[in-house]
Amino acid sequence: MTTMWLKSNLINILVELVIYLIIDNITKCIVAQKKKENHFDILLYECLFLGFLIGFISFYYHVPYVLVCFLCFHTLGTIYSAKGFTKIIATIKIIFQLLGRLIKYLCIKIANLFSRSSSLKTLEQNKIPKQYKYNFHLKPTNDMRLQQSSFTQTLPRPGIINLYGTTCSLNSLLQSLASLNKFYSSLQHNINLSRFNYNPVVSAFLHLISQLRNDHRTSEYKHWNKLIDTSTLITQLNSVYSNLLTPNSTADICELFQSCIDILNDSLSQQSTVYATNVIEQVQNSKLTTLSFENLNKLFLEIEEQIHEKITLDDLDSQTSNIIQYVDITWLLHHIQFGSTIKHTFSGQLLHAHCCNNCSHVHFRAEPFQILTLSINRASQTLEEVIATLTKIEIIESISCSYCTSQLKNEQDRIIKHDAILSKITSTVSPIVTSRRQISDHILSSTPISSSITNMIPSAKIHIHHRIKSQIMISNFPDVLCIQLKRFSYDRFSNKTMKLTTPIIIEPEKNLDLSPFHYTTWLGLTNLSISYHYRLVAACLHLSENSSQKLNGHYVCVYRTDNNQWSLSDDERIVEINNINHFFQTPYVTENCYFLFYERCL
User: The whole model's pTM is what?
Assistant: First the structure.
């Protein structure tokens, strides 16, 4: 057997050697006859012919190693005869550079595969308490099904790398925003990266949201493990707000959200009278939507003068049209001045009503919001009960009633003019120091005045303690409602931020009806009340080992997918959740739910 192999190989070698000698001698004859021709071209044709011959023999018979070696030497000789050794060395360098890049690329791919597999193992630690993992039907994605070529599944989104170990708040925020279908549709409709040059933060943000939404639809298992890097977005955000995201501490997710939409809004905003559908449909007087900014501003000054210090509880019904017009104008002015799809999506408007017990005058003030902040107490509540406290009437001890203050001033001026003696006395007395309105629950009284002067001067002390009834209503609803549950408070004595772990019961599959909290319901205009229902899309949880770890806590996100399934995102790790209603009743959610995203139902 060995002798036969040697004979066949020797024959092949001899045949290849004869073929080369024939071709080489033919080439020499041609070169000798064509003295004036370019010898380099002839030698090049010889190399090409040898290459073709090697390919032909390799395809039909065997690999002609002898011819391959002769071709290599012949090629080097041809290049040297025409270009010299410098060109040969340059060519070799180029070849080695290409090989180096290829090896580097392969090494990176192999390293990524090892890092992904190791990250999945390390992330099996108890970010989710073990007692919940099986009892509440949390199950990892069944990747065995994904290996079937004919099976295509809507997978959980790719995980996001936790840079520095402190970017979990950004990761949870991005996963939540990527779950908002209306928000993403608005971005696609209003932002055209190919036509306009935007701030780099816009393109970085849109790229990440697109990755999170698009990369999870695949039939190839390898794409599911692709982790997303947020370093570019972090650099852009920190260039605007320095130290917004640092390796030293975890940013509060609500503050981070507000900063992000402010940055994006500043990059995209432009004064425009083209309103979103959600804005227009909440305006009672549709003619106002056709007015320019200047005309709206002029009308605002007129209507504010009509309702300022002129509405009392007795004539509230007769002033209803002015109140509605005030709400409509402030709503439109807000969207003209901050004309961006970002704030149009998240912006709503509150209406503050303050009624003085002394004079019964009602003062209104409109205030836009992107986050609806709700206070919680120490007793377990449902989310609906927490929202109901927003419109609860509060009694405030204050002297801030402008109508009473103006009436008192007029009375004092009248007395001063008609009493010369009193006027002389007041000229020698130091100004009365009145207290200012306090933000906290404790109201400081003004500096006491001596009894002799008090008896002679009808000072402001007579009306210093006014009780004012205050109530907040929702005058305009956003497309996406963001709710912050105030779990953190600052303790002045311990100089620490404390976390309140009051259980808040949320029903994820139940729509949230906010119609009873609309200001038209408060005015008794049931025929004008707008029906607004919301469904939960994402909930961000703040996890910490003790109640004082706000900055060192950890954020995870529970989000709804397009096919109405639920997943939990913990940085690089994605877990599918079955029986979502049961999961939301666990202390893991009820005691840690912090930032909620609700999308309007049509």
Answer: 0.67
